[in-house]
Amino acid sequence: MNVRSLALPVLALLAAGTTGCIIIPVPRSTAEVGARGSVDPHQVEFLRDGETRRREVLLELGEPDDSFMIGDQLVDSYLCDVSRSDVHFGGAIPFPAPPFLIPFGGTLKSARRDFLFIKFDGEGTATRHGFKSYSYSRNQGESPDKSVREVMEEWDSGKEPEPPPRPRRK
Predict the structure, then answer these.
(1) Which of 7, 16, 124, 129 has a Cα at 20 to 30 A from 40?
(2) Residue 166 confidence (pLDDT)
(3) pTM above 0.70, yes or no
(4) Is residue 166 part of a domain?
(5) Is 137 inside a domain boundary?
(6) Can the peptide bond before residue 99 be classed as cis, meaning omega within 30 degrees of 0?
(7) Residue 24 CA to chain centroid, in angstroms?
(8) pLDDT value at position 167?
(9) What is the spatial distance between Cα 92 and Cα 100, in angstroms, rounded to a whole number?
(10) Is residue 16 part of a domain?
């Protein structure tokens, strides 16, 4: 058997059996009302655990978005950034009977929120600070399935330390 006689049937099988799929990531970064945009890690270099007072933090970063009490310690929460992205996909599956192609497609929606948490002792001195990112699916709606307090409690428990968020390109 010669190679040319095999080429056409092999190409026909590949064309009929291969589905098409195009994934187009569409990043959308929008700040929520009151969000500061990305907090550059350099903006919090002034924070020294055991030294920095809450009034200094308020002067540098402004009022926190949320504050929580854990025992006798106060935790301030700053919503740094909200990133949303949509991934659109689609394609067609070959089918032996009419209509011969079955189309499919959809959109996967996700979002990520970045927080800066700062914990203060009863005297108003920072004892711990750090960033925490939280990603969630928006396919069921715009609301995250965790509250800020739940994200803060995960951060406070020490689970999965988070690096600071990457500064966005301008």
Answers:
(1) 124
(2) 58
(3) no
(4) no
(5) yes
(6) yes
(7) 18
(8) 57
(9) 9
(10) no
CA–chain centroid gap for 20, Å, is 28
Q: How far apart are CA 31 and CA 27, in angstroms?
A: 13
Band of pLDDT at residue 131, cut at 50, 70 and 90: confident
Listed residue (138, 128, 137, 133) closest to 166, CA to CA? 133
Length of the chain measured in residues: 170
What does the block give as tokens for 50? 């055991």
Task: Please indicate, yes or no, if residue 19 is contained in any of the structural domains.
Answer: no
d(CA 131, CA 143) in angstroms, rounded, equals 21
Give the tens place of pLDDT for each residue, 71-105: 889 999 888 767 777 777 777 777 777 777 777 77
Render the burial of 86-112: b for 16+ CB within 10 Å, e for the rest: eeeeeeeeeeeeeeeeeeeeeeebebb
For CA atoms 154, 157, 160, 161, the dihedral sign is: positive
Q: Which of 25-29, 126-130, 151-155 has the lowest mean pLDDT?
A: 25-29
Q: What single letter denotes the amino acid at residue 92?
A: A
DSSP annotation string for 3-68: HHHHHHHHHHHHHHHPPEE--EEEEEE-PPTT---PPPGGGGTT--TTT-BHHHHHHHH-S-SEEE
Domain ranges, residue 143? 26-157
The number of distinct structural domains making up the chain is 1
